[in-house]
Amino acid sequence: MSPPTRILIVDDDEGIRSLVSSFLEKHGFQVDTAGDPMEMRRKLAQSQFALIVLDVMMPGEDGLTALKALQKSGGPPVIMLSAVGTDIDRIVGLEVGAEDYLAKPCNPRELLARIRTVLRRTSAAATPAAIATTPQAGAPAASGDALALHFAGWRLDLMSRLLHDPSDTEVALSDGEFRLLRAFLQHPRRVLTRNQLLDYVLGSDSEACDRVIDVQISRLRRKLVFGKDRTELIRTVRSEGYMFMPPVSRAETAS
């Protein structure tokens, strides 16, 4: 049997930590808790976690600030919990890099469903899908097991989930940005509606609004800039959606 999936709950309310951890443990998860971001970082240094449930409003360092630091260090996916549940707050949380955002108080069963959805999504994102593109001219014969996608001098490795710019410098991507770019590379030069992109990025059972995709694309565009080159890679198609403009090729990368 595989070991239980490890979840970290970060909340300054001891009652919420106890309630959520007890509920998740009954459903097969191994749960650890932290009362603030500082303790969270200590736990992350000691153990690996598949996902973090992070409260937004905490005294001292708030959850959004902690999330920004996690994104820079390449931490696990995060679901935000907040007593403030407006669309603007949700969009801000997702823009910073959260995988999902729930308003408090939330039904533990809903949180469980969201956790399972995020874990399914991140697990699927780590498995490269078949890409219907032509082989890159002059690419080496298949000699490894990691598929790389090439576009406009850039390279995305689907196994390591690493993006490299034309100078071969690594560009950090959040999990959502990786899934969005992968969706575009799998469907180049085709108009994709916001609903289609939501399905590719968040799954068909997501209740996120179209604005979430606009925010993610804005973030991705800022990262797909190399030097003074301002070539339009993702085009907005008015009233329809978005189109990825460069041709995409594939090649196997060495192990």
Task: Give a short summary of the structure.
This protein is of the alpha/beta class and 255 residues long. It has helices spanning 14-26, 37-46, 63-73, 87-96, 108-125, 175-186, 194-202, 210-223; strands at residues 6-10, 30-34, 51-55, 78-82, 100-103, 146-151, 154-157, 162-164, 170-171, 191-192, 234-237, 241-244, 249-253. It folds into 2 domains: 6-125, Response regulator (Rossmann fold); 146-253, Arc Repressor Mutant, subunit A, CATH 1.10.10.10.
CATH third-level topology of the largest domain? Rossmann fold
Estimated helix fraction? 25-40%
The termini sit apart by: 29 Å
What strand line-up does the widest sheet have? 2-1-3-4-5
Which second-level CATH architecture of the largest domain applies?
3-Layer(aba) Sandwich
Domain module count: 2
Strand content: 15-25%
- Summed over residues and divided by their number, the pLDDT gives a mean of 80
DSSP summary, beta strand count: 13
CATH class of the largest domain: Alpha Beta
Main beta sheet strand tally, sense and closure: 5 strands, parallel
Low-confidence stretches: 127-146
Q: What structural category arises from helix and sheet content?
A: alpha/beta
- Shape, per Cα inertia axes: elongated
Q: Taking Cα atoms only, what radius of gyration do you get, to the nearest Å?
A: 19 Å
Query: Treating each run of at least 4 consecutive H or I residues as one helix, how many helices?
Result: 8
- CATH superfamily of the largest domain, by name, is Response regulator
Q: Could you state the order of secondary-structure elements as H and E?
A: EHEHEHEHEHEEEEHEHHEEE
